[in-house]
């Protein structure tokens, strides 16, 4: 009798083990944990226990992820409120350069705007320094948020104080793109598209809206 025939027979005749219950204790198999041989019953118990342990570990992981997401959501909400309360471009810039870095464990930020400031005194800010046309084109081509290593097709040497191992770049836009906000991290995998960009998209949208009150496109 072939192995698949035995399997099919046992599946279609579950009463076999009711009639031959002693076989469950008499048949011995290698322990999956390498502790000699165990009965079929013990083997099944261990398998169920391993499944339960795996489910418990997954549950703990989900709970921790949910807690982390709640913390990020709360911090983002607080940051968005501060953005809405900001009365000047300088205050918004300080929030990005300091509050954003402190609250979200970011190494550095880079804010660049090629629209003109409404208030001429803001023109002296580093954020309004000239950016190459190649950078404009690259940022315009970003669909939502760029995440990953520093791009090789544009010069990012002056974006951050120290080179970043991973970056996130959010276009600033209303009707059209008028600048960008870039975040830097020392962690190589901190900003990666596979980790999701929902929080970063929301951040980009709110920063864009706040800054749009202080520029003329």
Describe the structure.
With 217 residues, the chain is α+β, with helices and mostly antiparallel strands. It has two domains: 85 residues, no CATH class; 129 residues, Beta-Lactamase (2-Layer Sandwich), CATH 3.30.450. It is built from seven helices and eight strands; from the N terminus they run αααββααββαβββαβ. It has a four-stranded antiparallel sheet, sandwiched between helices. A hairpin with a 3-residue loop joins strand 6 and strand 7. The relative contact order is 0.11. The mean pLDDT is 84.
CATH-assigned fold name of the largest domain? Beta-Lactamase
- Into how many domains do the coordinates divide? 2
Helix content: 40-55%
Radius of gyration from the CA trace? 29 Å
Order of strands, main sheet, comes to 3-7-6-5
Strand content: 15-25%
* Number of helical elements: 7
Under the CATH scheme, the architecture of the largest domain is 2-Layer Sandwich
Would you count the extended β strands for me?
8
Instruction: For the record, give the distance between the C-alpha atoms at the N and C termini, rounded to a whole number.
Output: 80 Å
What is the CATH C level class of the largest domain, in words? Alpha Beta
**Major sheet attributes:** 4 strands, antiparallel
Overall geometry: elongated
CATH homology group of the largest domain:
GAF domain
Helices and strands: which structural class? alpha+beta
How do the SSEs run, as a string of H and E?
HHHEEHHEEHEEEHE
């Amino acid at each position: 009798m072939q192995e698949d025939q035995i399997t099919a027979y046992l599946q279609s005749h579950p009463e076999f083990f009711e009639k031959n219950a002693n076989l469950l204790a008499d048949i011995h198999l290698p322990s999956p944990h390498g502790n000699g041989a165990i009965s079929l019953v013990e083997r099944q118990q261990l398998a169920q226990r391993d499944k339960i342990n795996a489910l418990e570990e997954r549950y703990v992981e989900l709970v921790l992820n949910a807690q982390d997401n709640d913390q990020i959501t709360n911090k983002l909400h607080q940051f968005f409120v501060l953005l809405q309360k900001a009365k000047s471009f300088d205050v918004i810039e300080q929030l990005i350069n300091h509050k954003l870095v402190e609250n979200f464990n970011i190494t550095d930020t880079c804010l660049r705007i090629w629209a003109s400031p409404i208030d001429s005194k803001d023109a002296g800010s580093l954020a309004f320094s000239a950016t190459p046309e190649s950078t404009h084109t690259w940022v315009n081509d970003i669909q939502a948020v760029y995440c990953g290593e520093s791009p090789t097709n544009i010069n990012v040497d002056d974006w951050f104080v120290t080179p970043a191992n991973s970056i996130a770049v959010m276009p600033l836009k209303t009707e059209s793109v008028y600048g960008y906000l870039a975040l830097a991290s020392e962690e190589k995998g901190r900003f990666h598209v596979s980790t999701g960009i929902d929080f970063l998209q929301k951040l980009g949208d709110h920063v864009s809206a706040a800054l749009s009150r202080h520029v003329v496109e």
